[in-house]
Amino acid sequence: MATSVEVKDKQRTGNKRFVSGVVEGFYGRPWTMEQRTELFKREQKWGLNTYLYAPKDDYKHRMYWRDLYCPEEAGQLIALISAAKQHNIDFIYAISPGLDITFSNRKEVTALKRKLDQVRDFGCSSFSLLFDDIETEMCPADKQAFSSFAHAQVAITNEVYQHLGEPETFLFCPTGQRGDHADYCAAFCTPNVSQSSYLHTVGDKLLPGIDVLWTGPKVVSHKISVKSIEEVSSVLKRAPVIWDNIHANDYDPQRIFMGPFKDRPTELIPKLRGVLTNPNCEFHPNFVAIHTLATWCKACSNGAAKDVEMGDEEQDPCYSPQKALILALTDWLPVFLCTDQPTAGSKKESCDEEPMQTDLGEGSYVPEPGENPLYTAEPLTLEDLKLLSDLFYLPYEHGSTARTMLHQLDWLKRHSQTVKTAEWCSRARHFDDMCEAVVRMFNRLSNAPNRSILYDLYNYICDIKSGVNMAQAYIKSLGGLGKPSAQLMSGDLEPWRFRGGLSGEFQRMLPGHGNRDLFKHPPKTAVFCIRPYCPEDQMEVQNIFMAMQRERQIQVPSLTQPRLISDMLSTGDISPTPQCALVLEDELGVCGYMLALTDTKAATANIQGDMNHSAFEDFPSLVTGQVLPRVSDPSPAKRMIEQLLSAVKSCGSRGVFCELRHSERRMLDFYAKLGSFNPIKMAGLPQDVIAMGTSL
Ligand code: GDL
Fold first, then answer.
1. Measured between alpha carbons, how far is 691 from 616 in angstroms, rounded to an integer?
2. Are residues 114 and 16 part of one domain?
3. Is the CB of 245 under 6 A from ligand 1?
4. Pairing of strands 655-661, 689-695
């Protein structure tokens, strides 16, 4: 019988229940069958309902997708699918044929169907075709057969879906290539979500019973807004299932994420078909990721608010990440305390999350008086787990203790030249205490009975402990205690002083990786000033323009660049319209600019070649601008263009356009995200340039 929560879920997503759970969709070592079974247990306990099987580096999921499972593998999959059923978890089997499939070859389609038939015979009834992370170019044979990549993928997906008897759950993951084009997220949709012809084809042609996976505005989305989901849903003609990479760590071996599911308003729930989290590669540390997602999914539905009482300070009335985190950590603590000793080949002991005492047994050694007492481990505490989560929080955010430590270290460093004040000494003590707490947490964790969790966490906690030890020693030396700081960094050092190996060396040689690495988001708020451009700024503006041009030429060495009107504005060969030019400044100086010509036709009368004058009627004004990469926050540039457009409008202009080279991905992205600029036709522009315009 359906529970009242399920009934509600079904109502809000067109009679189908809200898909919620986990996608094992990361690169690297897949989870074991035991871990997956443990996952189903937990999902059921926490009210989640789905598991998507998509381990990228499982041979037969992606690389050798055509190969059928051998009897031994079949046995394992059958057992897994049946375990999922036992726990009421919808097991979705995904396959990624995109690396090398030829869509137009019937044999390939047959191979795909044969493979999925085999899995269906194992008892699986939900499926998914994934086309993420593959080449975006079709092979010549497919180019002949299909009008676009989207058409090819949709055709095969529809065919397979029908072949399998139109399963209740069937998911499609759009194509994309990381770091280039990725149509499973907004950031790389060309030119943007609402105009992506790829997504439109998917929306129009994919059969309505098939659902689409979507990672949000980026591959690893910091925030997912309701507006962004409304936009993509209208193109896809269906509510997406979020494939959430917020806790994924397969892209950085030094990071793991144990902060709460966050920055996805619960208002999204009725607008989505579901959410699946693709979490850390390490199974055990995902307790927080999955538990907090479950709390989020329950938000606003029956009884959820009882689980999580919301504080006034929270913006979301139905979900507090901080409180969800505490709930998760409180449930996790006893799991650390149960004995679980994984040994090669043997199965782990199941502890059912009940703490167990380590058995001292009959023959246990009892020291005589005067002998060494037995070692007793201090038990791990909830505070330790809070600290652990704070140190390994989320991809775009450190937890509060980690932030405090960074602030303190930064302050202590900056004020270390002067004679040490009472404030310096007190902050140094505070910093030292925090470092000690990390070391204590490390020791208690290393002694916790559950060795499986420890082994998953070991590299990370060891890494943070040594980082903290170094910082602690450094501050001690600045305060005149311990070794002088010069000695810390010279002499015959142990290898742990040079962290990061060759990759570390590479990073340190690149710009932006100095000793401020710690502060990806600097602890102090950057202050920007937008002010009118004056002729004295011309040199700075030109320098920024040239720096950005040089950077593009490095990325695209073959770039031939005929000069555009925008280039002439930036280099000072044409002056911007007075009152219609702005510069952006930060503490280091001018870091961006936006210049406009209100009447492009008149201003460029002598120099225009065969530019299309009719376009000037709707878009008489031109705007150009650049912002240096050190301005990582997009809002100053946004404010600058808003001010500039309003200045141009008050000069009586009816429309503005900009010229952008294909290689200027950052600016293309910037204009696309503004929402108001759309590509326009403007004859006479070089081939690699597109014009985007907006009416005022
Ligand atoms: C991706 C991959 C995913 C990977 C994640 C994080 C999707 C749809 N695909 O692009 O397999 O784990 O990034 O690195 O997200």
1. 12
2. yes
3. yes
4. antiparallel
